[in-house]
Amino acid sequence: MKSKLTYLLICFILISCNNKDSLSFEPLTIATESCDNCTSVRIEIPEATGKTKLSKTINSALEGEIIALLNFDEESNARSLEEAKEAFVYDYKELTGKFPEESMPWEATIEGTITFENKDIITIKLESYIYTGGAHGYGTNRFLNFDKLNGVELYQEDLFKNLDDFKIFAEALFRKQENIPAEGSINNTGFMFESESFYLPDNLGYTENGLLLFYEPYEIASFADGPILLTIPYSDANTFLKYPQQP
Hints:
Blueprint: H1 2-20, E1 25-31, E2 40-48, H2 53-70, H3 81-98, E3 107-117, E4 121-131, E5 138-147, E6 152-154, H4 156-159, H5 163-177, E7 203-207, E8 210-215, E9 228-232, H6 234-237
Parallel strand pairs: 2-3
Antiparallel strand pairs: 1-2, 3-4, 4-5, 5-6, 7-8, 8-9
């Protein structure tokens, strides 16, 4: 009996360890009803299944980012994606009630995709387009990185052994890619870094091709220039990463 219990315990431990890194998703779509000349919202994201800490962390992080994207007046009390969708439509109706000339319907499209996953890390990109009047809408990307083993979201400072060292390295690569002289202001060729100093973008994400630095339109250049991307192969980035990857 004792040996049987020991065997069962060992099996349980092995199964638990094997399942620790397991993660599955199912598609989640939230959208307004389709109609002509109506404000529209469409959200399509991967929803992590199960009740693990990692699943809850991923779903909570995605929800928080999307609620923020749909928050037009910064006073919304939305606590779910459904509430955020309804608040976006309500804000449009409120605005057109006060300013009937602002009658162009609003639009919000948000799509989530997994850009990288292995046993240690998963990165999800949220790509969005939001139009709330004016000459054009605004497209943006958010990269969310997660530690699969510990079930936590990773912020910029969590990704590197030494953030300052990586910034110096990234600046050299950025100058080379954009043909900016090694000496002198980072804005010599027309970029718009504040304080004339290089800084990392708000968005960093793991991809199959390497670590992606993603500067949004307006972040360091004009809207017409679009996003500025720098992909650093893992063979170069691994020296600085807390989570190095196979090249």
